[in-house]
Write a structure and sequence with these properties.
This protein is about 65% helix and about 5% strand. It is built from ten helices and three strands. It has a three-stranded antiparallel beta sheet with strand order 1-2-3. A hairpin with a 4-residue loop joins strand 1 and strand 2. The two termini are about 25 Å apart.
Amino acid sequence: WKTALSRKAGSKLDMGAGLVLEGGRWMSQEEMIEAMRDGDMEAFHLFYQDTARPVYSFILSLTRNPEEAEDVMQDTYLTVWTKAGSYVPQGKPLAWVFTIARNLCYMRFREQKMKADVALEDLAEKEEGEYCAPLEQAADRKVLLDALGRISREERQIVLLHAAAGMKHREVAEALQMPLATVLSKYNRSMKKLQELLRCSG
């Protein structure tokens, strides 16, 4: 999964704002999608480089399985490429990709009848997360996952998009369409909870 999160060396990226230096000028994520409509593969590559980390973290949070997440991620970007023409500019391209990924997860869970860990109602309701790379000081991954499972879905999502995907709090707020103050409050509260849970587990 770390390979899937890696970024092209030398690329100048601005997560959230989606600005990438391309051909001597800056290109926004919405401009990339517009270029993809005309079959621009370079724009597609740049879009992938600029969004792969949060998208993978989000998908992994739903599948809770790295192999499944990689499969869904491939399907997600294939859909992004084929459906670029249907994108309606609203200044929130990452939220659009999240919706595509969520729907693909929903279909996969239906096909595989996976009900043990993720209820279909949860998928329809809200995105959530289950992995947080910067918290690797936990004794082991199971301890960390157990701790993440004991905080609320919103708190889990905010923590993972910020800590695992590297998004700024402002970017998380925009992607999730939540007030920045709410994101900051939930992040701080959830981090304190996680620290306490990990300390007790140790």
